[in-house]
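Chapter summary example.
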Amino acid sequence: MSYKIEICANSVQSAINAEQGGADRVELCDNLWEGGTTPSIATIRLTKKQLNIPAFVLIRPRGGDFVYSDMEFEIIKEDLIAAKEAGVNGVVSGVLLPDGKIDIKRTRELVALSSPLSFTFHRAFDQVPDFISGIEDLIQCGIQRVLTSGQKEKAIHGIANIEKMLALAADRITILAGGGINKKNVTQLYDIGCREFHFSAKTLMPGLAEQQAKVRMNGSPDISEDSIQVSDSRKILEVKKILDEKV
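The structure predicted for these 247 residues follows.
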C-alpha cells in the first residue's frame, strides 16, 4: 500500500466530490462544527448508491464528550445496526470511561456488533490520558484503525506523538492521521511514516436562498447562514498530487 486518503464527508455531495477528487474512501458524518455526529439513514443509503469507493460511517449520537449514558449507548448500537444494514463498508466510533481511558467492555461490544466490517476508533482517542496503553487497549479490543491528531488540536502539532504511535502500532493497528491536514503539511506526516490521511477538504459554497439570512441558527461563528460546507475535490486533488510524488 502506498497511501490512502479518507475524506470526512458531511453530505452526499461531499462524498461524490471526494470520489471525484481521488479519495480512497469517505467517512460519512453530520455536524462537522460539533466534531461530527451520526448522519441520517437516508444520507447513508443515498451515499452508498452514488459511490464506487468504500463508505465508512461515523456513529456518534451527539457532540461533547465520549462518555455515554445507557440510553445513549443503546442509540449508538441501533445506529450501528442500521448503518450496517444499509451496506456501509466500515464503522467509526468510540467510547471512553469517565477517567478518559478506553471503555474496553463497550468498545468490544461495538466491534462484535459491527463484525465483519472494518472498525475505526475515532478521535475520542485524543482524550485518552496515556496513548501508549490506549493503543494496546484498542488492539486488545480488535480495532483495525485509530484516527488521531497526536493528541493535539492539529495533526501537524501532534506529529511527534503520531511518530511514537506509528512505532507502537508496529503494523498491529493502522494509525490514521487526521486534524487540519492539507497540501502544506501532508508531506511532513508522510515522511514520519503516515500512510493513511483523514481530512475534510471543506470549502464554503453559496446556498440557494435569494434573501440573506435574518437570524443565526447554527452554533458556529465560522459558518454563515448563507453558505454550505462541502468537501472540495480540487483540494483533495492537490493533496493527492503531492502524495503521488512521494511514492
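To summarize the output: The CA atoms of residues 129 and 170 lie 21 Å apart.
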